[in-house]
Specification:
Blueprint (H helix, E strand, L loop, with lengths): L1 E8 L3 H6 L5 E2 L1 H14 L5 H17 L3 E8 L5 H19 L3 E6 L2 H4 L2 H5 L4 E6 L8 H13 L1 H25 L1 H20 L2 H18 L3 H24 L8 H32 L6 H27 L6 E3 L2 E3 L2 E3 L2 E3 L1 H40 L10 H12 L21 H18 L1
Parallel strand pairs: 1-3, 1-4, 4-5
Antiparallel strand pairs: 2-3, 6-9, 7-8
Helix pairs in contact: 2-3, 8-9, 11-12, 12-13, 13-14
Length: 444
């Protein structure tokens, strides 16, 4: 029975501090690795994990078991690449040594996430978690505080907000009162914690990077996004004006419905403009336009029509707006009486129109996709199977004629002594003359 005693290192501390590539297999190799990491960073808890790995392997050897000692490390690029690197190394160990079971040694919650990867490939008998005992005296506290102050990122995250709080709180307490100052400071701290918790700084950094790339690459969507932003602000302003013009703006439902009714056309135009810019970028690029981008403008128009219809229906039920009245028309012999469209009829028209628009969008997207796939299939069918270029028809027909044309062998004639179709030679001419003379002399 062979047991694999493996020490897991997800963040690749081994490769970062020693320059070695994992997996590292063997008692002597792991023992030398303890020295290398200890000399590179004596405070690293990974040294204790490696020593624990050697201790577990020694105990199993004392019980007359075959033991394979190994250290597996991840990757520093990302967590996904780290997990894949560990999975690949465990597969190599399984292929080389074929252990029956494994004992996993870890020293942190980060490394513990690798346990399911190992467990999916070999049975795990034990998970050994190494906890390093620290001295809890004043000297250790001072040392930890010194390390904390040496970390620039921690200083900016903790000390700067704390210092600003201590500076601003006395000013607020003297100006607006102690309770109001404490409330303001608490609000700012809460906003800062949410800012850090949701990684808003990384989101803003990524957004600015995308905007910079879009500006430098000359994408059409940059202009359409700016136009869509302006239309959005116009829609919000028109919606706010509609709410302010209500006779009785009390409550929430009626003002919100009025806001939607007035602002939806502008918001729909903003979304349509943004989607059109994105669609143009996809069309200009070399890659084929995805079906979702082709159908997006139709979906935006359909959703805007549905929201407009329902908001108009609710407002008409509350007598905020009236029905749509069409005046009569008299044009010569053509006479059209006036009529009006109530809330139910208006809602039906909006919903049916939205369904028609969405169906048209789906049909357009499907037809374009079928056209692109048909063109691709036609190109594939015209190309030869082996990837070579087709031979010209004249050359192929000429080769066929040469193969099918029977070979003719010239046969000599009895009288002339020459081959059929060939020129007469001097020898054949002289022979013919001699035969003529002999015949004439015999006749004489």
């Amino acid at each position: 029975m062979t047991t694999l005693v493996v020490c897991l290192d997800r963040t690749d501390d081994v490769g970062r501090k020693t320059g070695l590539r994992s997996p590292i297999v063997g008692w002597e190799a792991v023992r030398a690795l303890v020295t290398d990491i200890g000399l590179a960073d004596p405070e690293d808890s990974g040294v204790n994990s490696l020593l624990e790995t050697l201790r577990v392997a020694q105990d199993l050897r004392d019980e007359n078991e075959d033991v394979v000692v190994a250290v597996v490390s991840g990757d520093r690029e990302s967590m996904v690449s780290a997990d894949r690197a560990v999975a690949r190394q465990v597969d190599d160990l399984m292929a080389d040594y074929d252990p029956d079971s494994a004992v996993v040694v870890i020293d942190s919650a980060e490394d513990e996430r690798l346990v399911p990867i190992v467990e999916s490939r070999v049975r795990i008998d034990s998970v050994d978690r190494v906890v390093v005992r620290q001295a809890r005296d004043i000297e250790s506290t001072y040392y930890l505080l010194k390390q904390f102050l040496a970390d620039e990122e921690l200083r900016q995250t903790v000390l700067v907000p704390l210092g600003l709080t201590l500076l601003v709180f006395p000013v607020l307490a003297m100006q607006i009162g102690t309770a109001q100052g404490a409330a303001a400071i608490t609000t700012v701290i809460g906003l800062f914690l949410l800012y850090k918790g949701f990684n808003i700084d990384e989101i803003l950094t990524g957004f600015s990077h995308q905007v910079r790339e879009a500006l430098y690459s000359g994408q059409v969507s940059v202009v359409t996004y700016v136009v869509a932003t302006g239309l959005t602000f116009v829609g919000l302003f028109i919606g706010a004006l509609g709410v302010s013009s209500l006779d009785d703006p009390s409550g929430v439902l009626i003002p919100a419905t009025q806001f939607l009714f007035d602002s939806v056309p502008w918001l729909a135009m903003a979304a349509l403009t943004a989607s059109a810019g994105r669609l143009l970028d996809e069309a200009i690029s070399e890659e084929p336009v995805r079906r979702s981008f082709r159908n997006l403008p139709f979906i935006v128009v359909a959703v805007g029509l549905v929201i407009r219809g329902f908001s108009a229906y609710f407002l008409e039920q509350q007598s905020v707006i009236g029905p749509v009245v069409f005046a009569g028309i008299e044009q010569g012999a053509l006479t059209l009486d006036s009529f009006q469209i109530g809330g139910g009829e208006r809602l039906t028209i909006y919903v049916v129109t939205a369904l028609i628009v969405s169906l048209i969008g789906a049909r357009v997207a499907a037809s374009v996709s079928d056209g692109e796939s048909g063109a691709g299939d036609e190109d594939d069918s015209n190309a030869p199977a082996d990837g070579s270029s087709p031979a010209p028809e004249s050359a192929s027909s000429e080769a066929t004629d040469q193969q099918t044309e029977p070979a003719t062998t010239p046969t000599p004639t009895a009288e002339s002594g020459r081959t059929d179709g060939g020129p007469e030679t001097p020898e054949t001419e002289s022979a013919a003359d001699e035969s003529t003379d002999d015949s004439s002399s015999d006749g004489t």
